[in-house]
Amino acid sequence: MKAFEYATALSPATARELAGNDGAYLAGGNDLLAMMKEYLVEPKRLVNIKSLPGMDKIHSDSKTWTIGALVSVADLEDHPEIAKNLPGLQQAAAEVGSRQIRNVATVGGNLAQHSRCWYFRHRDVLCLKKGGEMCFARHGESKYHSLFTGNTCISPIPSNLSIAFGALGATVVVLRDGKELPMSIPQLYEKAWDDPTAHNSLQQGDLILRVELPAQERRSAYIQASEKSVFDWALVSCAAAARVDGNKLSEVKIFLGAVSNVPYQVQAANDFLEGKTADEATAAKAADLLLEKAHVQAHNGYKVPIVRALVRRTLAQLTA
Amino acid sequence: MPTWPEKNNYISSHHARIDGPLKVSGAAKYPSDVQPDGWLYGMVLRSKWAMAKLTKINLDPAMKIPGIKAVVLAPAVEERQKNGSDVTMRYYGEEIAGVAGTSKQACLDALKAIAIEATELPYVVREEDAKEPDAPRVWADTPNLSKPGERSNGDVDKAFGECAAVVEGFYTTPVQIHNPLETHGNTVSWTDEGVTCWASTQGITSVHDGLSQSLKLPASQVRVISEFMGGGFGAKFGPGVEGIIAAQLSKAAKAPVRIMLTRFDQALAVGNRPSSFQKIKLGAKEDGTLHAFDFDNYGTAGVGASGSSEGGGSGVALRAPYIYHVPNTRVKQAGVNVNAGSARAFRAPSCPPSSFGMESIMDDLAVKMGLDPVEFRIKNDTRTPGWEIRQKQYKLGAEKFGWKEKYKKPGSSPGVVKTGVGCAGSAWGGGGRGTRAEAEIHPDGSVEIRCGTQDLGTGTRTYIALIAADIFGLKPEQITVRIGDTRFPPSGGSGGSSTSPSVSPAILDTCRKALEALQQQTGVADARGDHWKAACKKLGVNPLLTQGEWQEGLSSSNTGGVQFAEVDVDTETGFVRVKKVLVVQDGGLILNRLTCESQLNGGVIMGMGYALYEERVMDKNSGVMLNPNFETYKLTGLGDVPEIEIILFDMPERGVIGIGEPSTIPTAAAIANAVANALGVRVNSLPMTPQRILAALGKDKLSVA
Amino acid sequence: MSESSSKDGFSVSRRAFLKTFGTSAAVAATAQVDAVAAELEKANQEKIVGPEAVPITLKVNGKTIKLQVEPRVTLLDALRNMTPLTGTKEVCDRATCGACSMLVDEKLVYSCSMLAIEAQGKKITTVEGLGEPGKLSKVQEAFVEQDALMCGYCTPGFVMSVTALLKQHPKPTEAQVRHACSGNLCRCGTYPRILEAALKAAGVAKISKTEVIAYADVA
Fold first, then answer.
1. What span, in angstroms and rounded, lies between the C-alpha atoms of B275 and B279?
2. Residue A288's closest chain B neighbor by CA?
3. What's the pTM value of the predicted model, to 2 decimals?
């Protein structure tokens, strides 16, 4: 890790000023410090934002859930009201890292975390995502990589919460140039779809302030498949939310994680499910629609059946 | 010939380890914890090329970093420079230089500051690429693929013609990394009086000898201390390049230097288990007796024999046909060099891959012939030492496990999540060898036992206390055990499951001699137990020092063990959940049931990692190891540990035997057989990740229905 | 001194001034109202320090430790390399193994991934703070009795994880123990005994199935 200056910010505005053009925000630190230890990023200054007031609160009223960017993932996991009303979010939170990670990891940090691609994370591999010439995974070891991408980089998004928030129709409020900028989950990541060097649409100095969710009667669920049963990254994750009337689904949103550089959704799949009963055949058709544009690499074809299984199981959990 | 006492208070009991309180409270000082006055932090600079000629190495900028006290070249680099020969790096992670300074941060900056110019050379990092005739050569004058070693017995081709059934298979195992939690490393102090080295090692004696030779110091001027150490599994026998560098840095800086490798370094450069690519053909006669065996295997031990392999047992050759008797065999094995770190001995060297290949094809053949896999094993495990024990273990284990009820036709388990069972056996040599020890009995009744062995976490320190307590009629708490110092009477390295068969007889002998001497010197007929204090008081002012040594007849080798595994396999996500493992193990004379069982648990869990998670991944386009960490080199965690049931065969008549290694041998094979039983298809490569499970099921192709 | 305004009315140039000259008594003396003092305190906190070493104060196991560290020094490195508190282990240094687990303000964290400078003002507990030989904590006792350790290098981290779990769930289920300890790795394979120890410390029984059978008695 390269030496850096350090400051603690007490307001979002000073945080922004302190971060300048070559500083970075420090919240949970899990991702940032790991990248700094590998010299993948070398910020001149770290701005500790954990003391920003009021940003570690979860609030709900009849219309909206407001989740501060500094709320820890463990707080999401442990929150009884979230477990009851937004189970998909609670399940996604519970699957993040380990208890030690969740205790310090923040909602903002989870959404803004960078790719875990083993080429990107390797100190001595200059891959496309780091400004190099080629996507090594495409020509090498791709078992953890994407089925869908809008560019040459096939590193998938690692954020569990982004998938769950996507299904729940969340708005992420970002402070940019002194103004609050609301972004949908697709907007928060759209830049990563096209730009191999991008992990999300955030710019230097952007600060995630909070996530807002419409209070909903929709049910939600999140399931991930991994190589190990706990403390492992998802090979595929699936989050879904829908209004469930008897067995009938409406207002459905399905997002897939770990299969694309963005939280992946296909509107046609959501549309197809409108008014349908969540049975095997419906789930299979929805999975077909989701997989329509899948492009399999040398080692990741096995993710396809996992997508199918998770789509079916997630929908089944919604209607259970 | 001496024998073990028959009635004991402590030997063979369930006894908590005596150093437990130190370990659970952080009070135990490991080599990575010692902080001798003025100690410096040290780190190693490594090659970032898989193959390169270093044309210029400028250490000066590193010396200018504030806090840096010494910078040295790695010994091999220095020697090549001195000789005027090319300095060629042959794998990503090979040592170039070392730095020592007042902080880790200074060292990190110094590593960055060292200026190196290099000419990159063609490299090859994957076995299947390296064995091609036109592949870049790791060593210019040697083909990557060695001339295979061949041996045969009988007329194999004719014998296959006589078989009622023949199966062929291709089974592969990955390079496995030891990953002891305390990385390799030492804290070394080199002064005018000589070298003191706190080593995280399995062999204080071998570190001592290695340092003495490498540093050209008289043996008397080297002292190695390893009171506690954080795991080795075969990879920690010598001082290592990092130990020599630490010593040189200490000499240059005139201060103690600690170099503990980073996790990253550890994955690259200090050992691994070789891979295997086993093509096997096996045939049996109508009655189910094996008749013909053809085996063609290659694997990599890294850059090859000229690399930094140490400790022995690191070759690619497997034991084939392992524990089974086949009258007609042909075995062909070759090593293939790649540009990657060298192999070292790894817990039961060569056995887990041998077991995976052989036990897999045994099941494949049993299935083809419609035979019960347990019966098939009992029929053919008839010669390899331990076979009589294993036969009984299979019978008893099958009964306890419920094999007859649980074993179903492969693939017949209904539903998406399929259940399967499998079994496998192990044979291991082990055995004891020369060890000396001494007992110092003080007039106040206190006792110190000293032995130059080390405790890898197996419980060495504890059983020494138990033996002494039984012989002296005392409590284990009354015994002070001192180990892990080359100033104590010598023992060997802790490898080959030889520590307890080596150390325990020496302790027994020492204690018996000490008791005899005490009784003789004090005239007390029986100084044990209640008489102890009074007898010791009669010693007067001087303590009584007695030495003893290893004796024939108190330990033995050749253990047998079998394991049964039950798994659930999710045929849609490829996830394998191991539900249960039953271990039936020959324990000989069990010194301490508690620590013995812990080791068996440990063997199973490491074997499970080999079965399901662990694999070194090399990248052909960059030459680097992609997973030199715990994020993508995955170890078994508590969340995945199954129920482990242990049945120990108590065989005190055999004396003490080591069980650290045998317990890890059959686990992966038993799990693999259970997976094959569940699926009805063989997953022929370890680790059995979701990717490989789904590939075996033919589901890894894109098929949009 | 020009005052460029920002949202909270705090000035960039004043902060720069404060960085340059520190919060000298002279500055404080000229301050006339509490508001200014509050702003100063805030400025002090928002002061830019480093990259060179700066003095920090840590509260570890009830004791105050003063160190001089660069901002980039982790809490783990600060304690292991600059104090005698080496009970906490460094194993991966990448938030994957749990050997460096500590309690910071009663929360279980990976100390390899927290800067020492940001741990100031917090209550830090390491394994040494839970108990010592002769005065072990309940969890530590249970680890010894159940043999939930072999080489012992992962042990301090597991002891911290189980301790944190039992604070949150005094009577955990087996599944809760497995989940709570998933952030810790052991290479010797002590897990079954860790599970037993955690449950035992919580007063919940769980004993592995093991038996010793005399060879002579086996058919």
1. 13
2. B704
3. 0.95
Amino acid at B361: I
C17-56 per-position pLDDT tens digit: 344 344 444 444 444 556 665 665 666 678 999 999 999 9
Mean pLDDT of chain C: 85
DSSP code per residue over B614-656: ----B-TTT-SBS--STTTS----GGG--EEEEEEEE-GGG-B
> Is there a contact between B699 and B573 (Cβ–Cβ < 8 Å)?
no
The strand pair at B257-260 and B185-191 is best described as antiparallel
Query: C78: part of which helix (H) or strand (E)?
Result: helix C75-82
CA distances to A299, C54, C74, C80 from C116, in Å: 41, 11, 5, 11
Residue C206 reports pLDDT greater than 90: no
Task: Match 């400790």 to its residue by tokens.
Answer: B311
Nearest alpha carbon to residue A305 among C213, C215, B705: B705
**Does the pLDDT of residue B140 top 80, yes or no?**
yes
d(CA B492, CA B527): 32
Judge: B622–A139 Cβ closer than 8 Å, yes or no: no
What are the residue ranges of helices labelled H in B370-498? Answer: 373-380, 387-401, 403-406, 460-472
Q: In this complex, is the C-beta atom of A118 within 8 Å of any C-beta atom belonging to chain B? A: yes
Among B429, B425, B430, B431, residue whose Cα is nearest residue B325: B425
CA distances, B236 to each of B229, B239, B347 (Å): 10, 8, 11
Asked if C194 is an interface residue toward chain B (Cβ–Cβ < 8 A), one would say yes
Q: What string of DSSP letters covers chain A? A: ----EEEE-SSHHHHHHHHTTTEEEESS-HHHHHHHHTTS---SEEEE-TT-TTTT-EEE-SSEEEEETT-BHHHHHH-HHHHHH-HHHHHHHHTSS-HHHHHH-BHHHHHHPPP--TTTT-TT---GGGT-S--HHHHS--TT--SB-SSS--PPP--HHHHHHHHTT-EEEEEETTEEEEEEHHHHHHHHHH-TT-SSS--TT-EEEEEEEE--S-EEEEEEE-SSSSS---SEEEEEEEEEETTEEEEEEEEEESSBSS-B--HHHHHHHTT-B--HHHHHHHHHHHHTT----SS-TTHHHHHHHHHHHHHHHHH-
pLDDT in tens, B599-611: 999 999 999 999 9
Cβ distance of C127 and B638 shorter than 8 Å: no
Q: Is B167 helix (H, G, I), strand (E, B) or coil?
A: strand
User: What strand order describes the sheet that includes A219-225?
Assistant: A219-225, A236-245, A248-257
pLDDT greater than 70 at residue C16 = no
| Interface probe, candidates B619, B634, B697, chain A, greatest A C-beta count within 10 A | B619
Is the link from the previous residue into B321 a cis peptide, with omega within 30 of 0?
Answer: yes
In this prediction the ipTM stands at 0.97
Q: Which chains form contacts with chain A, at 3 or more CB pairs under 8 Å? A: B, C
Question: Residue C32: what pLDDT?
Answer: 56
Determine the residue among B268, B626, B630, B679 to mutate to test chain A binding: the one whose Cβ has the most chain A Cβ atoms within 10 Å. Answer: B626
Give pLDDT tens digits for A39-82: 999 999 999 999 999 999 999 999 999 999 999 999 999 999 99
Confidence of residue B182 (pLDDT cuts 50, 70, 90): very high
- Rounded CA-CA distance B265/B47 in Å is 11
pLDDT of B315 reads 85
Q: How far is CA B604 from CA A247, B665, C151, C179, C190, in A?
A: 45, 8, 16, 21, 11
pLDDT tens readout for residues B441-464:
999 999 999 999 999 999 999 999
Residues A310 and A283: their CA atoms lie apart, in Å, by 10
Strands C54-60 and C123-125: parallel
C182 touches chain A (CB under 8 A): yes
Tokens 């994955």, residue located: B267
Reading the block at residue B575, the tokens are 């996830």
